[in-house]
Amino acid sequence: METTKTRETLEHWRMGFMGRVANPLFAEELFDRVPDIVFSVKDIRGRYVCISEACAERCGLKSKAAAVGHTAHELFPQHMADRYVRQDEQVFRTGRALVDNLDLTLFNNRKPGWCLTSKVPLFDATGEVMGLACLSKDVHEPGRAGLVDERFAGTIDYIQANYGERLRIESLARRAGMSAAQFERRMQRIFQLSAGQFIMKTRIDAAAERLVKDAQPISAIALAVGFCDQSALSRQFKQVTGLSPRQYRQLVVATSVPGAPRGKRAR
Question: In whole angstroms, what is the distance from residue 206 CA to residue 96 CA?
């Protein structure tokens, strides 16, 4: 059975291996071969450090190098860039990842479409946020179903911003401009999750991050992310991860490399 010492050794080996990689832009090259996924890295000022081929094509650029040093407002339509920048600023300010945001984007034919975007902060050796990495996957709408519109996307935003509150499927469906049944079908088609499962996933993701980055008691975290008490969080958390919240916190802390950033925020 794997021990804490073994996990620490493996983590040290893993970090050492990645630290010796001479080409830190290997991910850009990998994602060049996936046309329905856009990959990018930005610095703390929102300037692109690197982008994948799909991103360059969608922005009408002759090469990926043409994006380096530029910002979203210089490459995308303003209404899209405004949203991207707000997301970036949230990541820079909080040091927390954004997961599965439903965004309007440009497809390879330069026509607008929808994507699921995740962004993770990048930390320097002192633990300060120095930038972010972004991954956006196209949402392919079959035929003329028109699964995504601005009201539906806004409802997803609402869930991800208010997961700590009591969320009713009927109210969310009305916000999206559809019946509860229509809302459920659309959630299944896009996220492969029911609306209830999506809300639960959002809460569990938030709890997992807080368990590592915050020193709050687990009972306080449970209430903050929308559970009625600690036992409710523990039950759902263990069902999803196989670990109790306390075990998860202990495991992640034990396998963290000494000196690695954890819990620091951008200033």
Answer: 9
245-255 vs 230-241: helix crossing angle, rounded to 10 = 60
Token pair 């519109």 is at which residue? 149
pLDDT digits (tens, 9 = 90+) for 95-120: 999 988 888 787 777 677 778 899 99
Q: How many angstroms separate the CA atoms of 119 and 121, rounded?
A: 7
pLDDT in tens, 175-212: 999 999 999 999 988 888 899 989 998 999 899 889 98
Tokens matching residue 133? 């990495």
CB 206 within 8 A of CB 173: no
Strand (E) or helix (H) holding 193: none
Choose among 202, 203, 146, 200: nearest CA to 177: 146
> What does the block give as tokens for 183?
């809302």
